[in-house]
Design brief:
By secondary structure, this protein is an alpha+beta fold. 15% of the residues lie in helices and 28% in strands. It has helices spanning 44-54, 99-104, 109-112, and strands at residues 6-10, 14-15, 39-43, 67-69, 81-84, 87-94, 119-123, 127-130, 135-137. The chain is globular, with a radius of gyration of 14 Å.
Length: 139
């Protein structure tokens, strides 16, 4: 994972240069089409809670999620169309943690992130996502 101040979102594909956009992700072509796992989001509040409740320091760049949010309940975005800056997304499903993530980080991460591992989303419109962009949930 690499940190970027801004990145291009490609509709129906993913984030420019991302493993799922290039169809070379660990789970590419498995369980869910890659365009439906084009982008993943996780709450900063979750990372704070994991630290406080489990003593696990999981930096945002180790979560294997693309965007870290604050102030929005991501689980509520499944099936919902929303915008991050100028890019329109659709929440597809919850991004449950897996043993692969725990193997890359530390024991206990899988349980600590249960039911709060974030959300996977599909990119509906192209554009640039920039650090600090607001999330706008459409009715």
């Amino acid at each position: 994972m690499e940190t970027h101040d801004a990145i291009e979102a490609i509709a129906g594909r993913g984030l420019a240069g991302d493993r799922y956009c290039e169809a070379v992700g660990s789970y590419s072509g498995q369980r869910r089409p890659d365009h439906e796992r084009a982008i993943t989001l996780i709450e900063a509040e979750t990372l704070d809670a994991v630290r406080a409740e489990h003593g696990i320091d999981l930096p945002s760049d180790r979560t294997r999620r693309n965007i870290v949010t604050r102030g929005i309940a991501l689980n509520d975005l499944v099936g919902v169309t929303f915008r991050v800056g100028e890019v329109t997304l659709r929440g597809v499903d919850l991004a449950h943690p897996c043993a692969y993530l725990e193997g890359l980080t530390q024991p206990g991460v899988l349980g600590a992130l249960k039911n709060r591992g974030g959300v996977r989303a599909e990119i509906l419109t192209e554009g640039t996502i920039t650090v600090g962009d607001q999330i706008d949930v459409r009715p």
